[in-house]
Amino acid sequence: MATWNLLGTATVSGTSTTAITFSSIDQSYKDLCIIGSLTDVTGSSGYAPITWLMKTAAGGAMSLGGGYMEMSYNSLTPSSTQFASASSTISYINSADSTSGNSPIYFYCYDYSSTTVAKNFYLFHGTTGRSPYLAASSFRMHKWLFNDGSNSPLGTIDVRTSQANLQAGSTLSLYGIEG
Amino acid sequence: MADYEVIASGSVDASAPVTINITSIPGTFKHLLFSLNSASTLSSGSYSDLLIMRFNGDTGSNYNRARQYKYDSASGAGTQDRGEDSSMGVAFTRIPTRHSGQSTKSFAHTNICIPAYSDTVFTKGVLIDHLNPYSYNFPTTGQASGIGSFIGVGGWNNTAAITSIQISSYEGLVTGTSGCGFAVNTSYVLSGLA
């Protein structure tokens, strides 16, 4: 029976934290999961971009390809986007300057420690709160699937705001799941 | 405390309860995962019922949601919308019924992630992933081929720790349709993550 094991929790205090980084990730599990919620201290139109940077256990950057389904502010039609190659991906979180909510996040990676299986990353997240919806301009929801085809084990996950800093109370938990 | 524990689980009998009420959720975990397999006993009128998910017994207009969905077999783009200041909770999505001619084997499946449920810093946000069964066409016949897909993000405008969850049938609770509630074998599992 698969069991979940907490590998680490990072909770932001103060107003000067730019990133949450899980490095030297324990390679003794099969899958990884990250659950949490994030908010930026400032942003544009009520949301702020964050980047997800993956590195191999050896420290090299991964080459990520993939795509996402998106629901964004005033559009009534769902959209999707794909990209062939990037070193990081961008998603969006609430910004505390103009919204009252936070951004729930669920991330899952199968076979992250394998040396024979390409890495698939699933990411589901969105912005919440009363003000983003009323503003009709600042809510976002993304469902991503991206991958790195090198078969290299995943060693570092860096979640970094490119807007300002993360709001105190922002938190991410990393779990290792036994096969 | 293990890093992953089942906090509560259960299934519905033939009494068709309007609400599944999970109470006394301990604050000792960090995140919650909720899994629900559900259908409604609604037997006439609409071919679908709606889920309502509320927290801590709050029936006020304190919920918001954004969702993408497609519930029929027709090709083409789905729909997305948003709602704010709603009393209908965060998981406002369709589930199959026991309308005349409907299979009693049809259940919708819902996974809900509730990060930082025990924190008191931010208002609460949830992620909802929901599928209706094959051969269930909302809202016209309930029987055409197709599968209903729904993903959504919801929020509760309250920073309090979540201590109870109420899952309700819209037709039973709001419309007040007599005898309408969750169908027998509707089941759920609530898990806590350290």
Characterize the structure shown.
The complex is a heterodimer of chains A (179) and B (194). Chain A is mainly beta. Chain A has a single domain, classed as Jelly Rolls (Sandwich). Chain A has 1 helix and 12 strands. In chain A, strands 1, 2, 3, 4, 5, 6, 7, 8, 9, 10, 11 and 12 form a 12-stranded mixed sheet that branches. In chain A, strand 5 and strand 6 (79-86) form a beta hairpin. Chain A starts with a strand and ends with a strand. The mean pLDDT of chain A is 87. Chain B has one domain. In chain B, 3% of the residues lie in helices and 42% in strands. The radius of gyration of chain B is 16 Å and the shape is globular. The longest helix of chain B has 6 residues, at 170-175. In chain B, the strands form 2 sheets. Chain B has an 8-stranded antiparallel sheet with strand order 1-12-3-8-9-10-5-6, with no helix packed on it. A 4-stranded antiparallel sheet of chain B has the order 2-11-4-7. With 194 residues, chain B is mainly β. Chain A binds chain B through residues 3-6, 9, 35-37, 39, 69, 71, 75-78, 100-106, 124-130, 133-134, 136, 139, 141, 143, 167-169, 171, 173, 175, and chain B through 2-4, 30-31, 64, 66-68, 77-85, 113-116, 119, 121-127, 129, 151-155, 157, 193-194.
Q: How can the largest sheet of chain B be summarized?
A: 8 strands, antiparallel
Percentage of residues in helical conformation of chain B:
under 10%
**CATH third-level topology of chain A:** Jelly Rolls
Summed up, the helix count of chain B is 1
Low confidence ranges of chain B: none
The number of E-state strands of chain B comes to: 12
Strand order of the largest sheet of chain B: 1-12-3-8-9-10-5-6
Q: How many domain regions of chain B?
A: 1
Radius of gyration of chain B: 16 Å
Assembly category: heterodimer
